[in-house]
Amino acid sequence: MTKKLDQKQNLLKGIIKENPVFVMLLGMCPTLGVTSTAFNGLGMGVATLFVLLMSNIVVSLIKSQIPNKVRIPAFIIIIASFVTIVEMVLEAFIPFLYEQLGIFIPLIVVNCLILGRAEAFASKNNLQSSIFDALGMGIGFILALTSLGAVREILGNGSFFGLSFIPEDSNSFILFILPPGAFIALAYLSLVFNRLTLKTS
Amino acid sequence: MVKKKSTFATMVISLVMITLVSGFVLGYVNDITQEPKAKARLEKKINAIKQVLPEFDNNPIEDVIKIPSSKFNDSIEIYPAYKNNEFIGAALSGYSNKGYNGLIKIMAGFKPDGSIQNIEVIEQKETPGLGTKLKNNSFLKQFRGQNPSVFNLDVSKDGGDVDAIAGATISTRAFNESLKMAYDEFMAYLTKYTPN
């Protein structure tokens, strides 16, 4: 029973208590860079979830074989390989998303969320816990990026997931699609998020 | 399992093993995605050509004519379209490096008399909400059916006939430049090859 509870906690902590974006402020580069639309945020979130899950699984499986002093280069090679796989697969099968995300796909390698989970969690815990940890963190990351993208797209472009609800030439808050708008929207969203989670806990 | 000690040998062996495995996996994935990647790129090109040309029944991709460009490293590609063996126009790509954030690439379709059939923006990095309106129908429709020999491809501010996008005159100028380039190449192509 306690074990089941533990896994639930591993999963939930990434979504709420230790949400990588709103609480820990990790992985800011893709968070601010690609969330100009909800779809881009979702795509980036899913790509990151995949890399995070795979790298947590592999690191947790071979952790006893990696000597302590070369663990960082070993993790980086593992993460970089999965990111390259994601890049090739996206280019081949979802070229639209590949073009939208551009340089931010290879930059998943240096997303400190992924290396952080490999180092702080997967290299110290068993396979099952690592999978739940990766799923929790990844889902938390997806939720954060999608909501940030949705807010920016609704305010800045008058549309939601590409469905426009204002006429083509009407004005919107362009600021929110531009880079400064990402900071403003992120600040307000994390304010709301932390306020809400403070109350529940 | 006991954690491996960090000796020279274990460090070298573990890193070599990891890079070896990841190398094989990446090589394999690269091999199997090679074909879909090329297919996706080709599909994008075909779609753009279909957008800018009237209905055709040949394969413009196969009939492509490449002309080395004096301005750009890329050669210019001309995709002629035929219907019932009659020349009905050609699609050309045009570039400009003078966009607000660099490269703007378009695909333009011309009828044999030189008038513009349609234009499709292929690549741009303009400011979202301002320069990106280049892709909107409300901007592109002013070009359709116009013949650049009488329709001056300059912004009205510079004495031309093109209504610039409000707040994005630089993007509009770059767009015009790429369209002019496509038009000039089309005229050169007409005089040089005289289809039919």
From TrEMBL, chain A:
Transmembrane helix recorded as keyword: yes
UniProt keyword annotation of Hydrolase present: no
Pfam family, one: Rnf-Nqr
Localization per Swiss-Prot or TrEMBL: Cell membrane; Endomembrane system
Keywords: Cell membrane, Electron transport, Membrane, Translocase, Transmembrane, Transmembrane helix, Transport
Residues spanning the membrane: 21-39, 45-62, 74-94, 100-118, 130-151, 171-193
Protein EC: 7.-.-.-
Record's bilayer topology term: Multi-pass membrane protein
Function: Part of a membrane-bound complex that couples electron transfer with translocation of ions across the membrane.
Subunit structure: The complex is composed of six subunits: RnfA, RnfB, RnfC, RnfD, RnfE and RnfG.
Family, as annotated: Belongs to the NqrDE/RnfAE family.
Protein name: Ion-translocating oxidoreductase complex subunit E
Organism: Winogradskyella alexanderae
Gene name of this polypeptide: rnfE
From TrEMBL, chain B:
S-adenosyl-L-methionine as UniProt keyword: no
Regions that span the bilayer: 7-29
Keyword Phosphoprotein listed: yes
Cofactor(s) this protein cannot do without: FMN
Topology within the bilayer: Single-pass membrane protein
EC number: 7.-.-.-
FMN phosphoryl threonine found at: 169
Key words of the record: Cell membrane, Electron transport, Flavoprotein, FMN, Membrane, Phosphoprotein, Translocase, Transmembrane, Transmembrane helix, Transport
Gene3D superfamilies to which the protein is assigned, alphabetical: 3.90.1010.20
Domain FMN-binding, chain residue ranges per copy: 99-186
Main location: membrane
Location relative to the cell: Cell membrane
Function summary: Part of a membrane-bound complex that couples electron transfer with translocation of ions across the membrane.
Family: Belongs to the RnfG family.
Quaternary structure note: The complex is composed of six subunits: RnfA, RnfB, RnfC, RnfD, RnfE and RnfG.
Matching PANTHER family: ION-TRANSLOCATING OXIDOREDUCTASE COMPLEX SUBUNIT G
Protein name per Swiss-Prot or TrEMBL: Ion-translocating oxidoreductase complex subunit G
Organism taxonomic ancestry: Bacteria, Pseudomonadati, Bacteroidota, Flavobacteriia, Flavobacteriales
Gene: rnfG
